[in-house]
Amino acid sequence: MASRANPGGLRFEDMSRTERVQAAVNGDPVDRLPVCFWHHFQPEGSGRAMAEATLRFFDEEFDLDIAKIMPDLPYPLPRKSIHAIDDWRLIEPIDRERSRYFTQRAEAVRLLRDELGFDTPIVVTVFSPLAEAMYAAPGRETFLNHAREAPVVVHDALATIAENLRFHIHDAIDAGADGVYFALQGCTTAIMPDEMYREFGRPYDLLALQGGVNGWLNILHVHGDRDLMFDQVLDYPVQVLSWSDRIAGPSLRDARMMTSKCLMGGWNEFGALSNGPEDAILAEAQDAVAQTGGRKFILANGCSVPDDTDPRWLHYAREIVDDLDLPD
């Protein structure tokens, strides 16, 4: 590629991963599209193991533009442990100095930053308070029933979880992360009506996200395969929006008409990216560029690809980005 300079004087051939992603977030020209994809690693419960798995996948194997620490060191709330309404009263503030959730995830950030320097952005995946609350119940219906029957009790629990997450996000950024990948669940009318999400989701999302105020790469992921409440989150204090655009909608083109935030997506995580063939992986990438104009856009999967995805498809996806044509 011929050497060109952007208005700030940075020559494209000199762009680091951080500079490339920052340019995309700001809507500035890029040498090529920033690219990222991911799956779960299931490490042995330590920050070091998480850092090593992250470094191996995002840096060494696939040379991706964002190192995404996965949520595989879970929030310290036993899954499916909430059965009765009074169980929600057991949710308490977390001791940040003693909790492995806090200390080991911060340790993963520090180790990655030491290895990667500042030329690669690092984001930490965090599930929203509502997502953590729904995981704690044996099923979504249990949570929804409790929320309707005893809203004050559930609100208190959500507020506590949100405060814990606010501190965790702050500590992760303080440890060296550039932002958070904040994953919403329940933000779809397939799970609950709009007004219920406005009551039990949105306020606690915003409280937790206060911890990311010093991050420049906060990514909001709206999880779901249909009927997303996209309008409810367009004003969240994040720089990037992520969702399964190929599955749930809206399309990248429609989303570009709805927001000026940087968009992240383009590949169907259960489609060609994880199953091939090569021409379909390329076609989705080219179509994503056509929909967005290649500006304020990060090419990525809509959500995690299956853990058993054949690496050859991911290698091909990474390779095509170097030669993907962008509009002038």
Polypeptide structure, described:
The protein is α/β, with parallel strands linked by helices and 328 residues long. It has a single domain, classed as Alpha-Beta Barrel (TIM Barrel). Helices cover 41% and strands 11% of the residues. It has twelve helices and eight strands. The protein has an eight-stranded parallel beta sheet. Helix 4 packs across helix 6. The radius of gyration is 20 Å and the shape is globular.
Q: What spatial order of strands do you see in the largest sheet?
A: 1-8-7-6-5-4-3-2
Number of domains: 1
Instruction: Assign a percent range to the helix content.
Output: 40-55%
Radius of gyration: 20 Å
CATH architecture: Alpha-Beta Barrel
> What is the fold named in CATH at topology level?
TIM Barrel
Oligomer: single chain
CATH class reads Alpha Beta
Low-confidence sequence ranges: 1-11
Run of helices and strands: HEHEHEHHHEHHEEHEHHEH
**Strand composition percent:** 5-15%
Our measurement of the CA-to-CA distance between the termini, rounded to an integer number of angstroms, reads 13 Å
- Based on secondary structure, the structural category is alpha/beta
| Count of helix runs | 12
Number of strands: 8
CA-based shape: globular
Major β-sheet profile? 8 strands, parallel
Could you tell me the mean pLDDT? Answer: 93
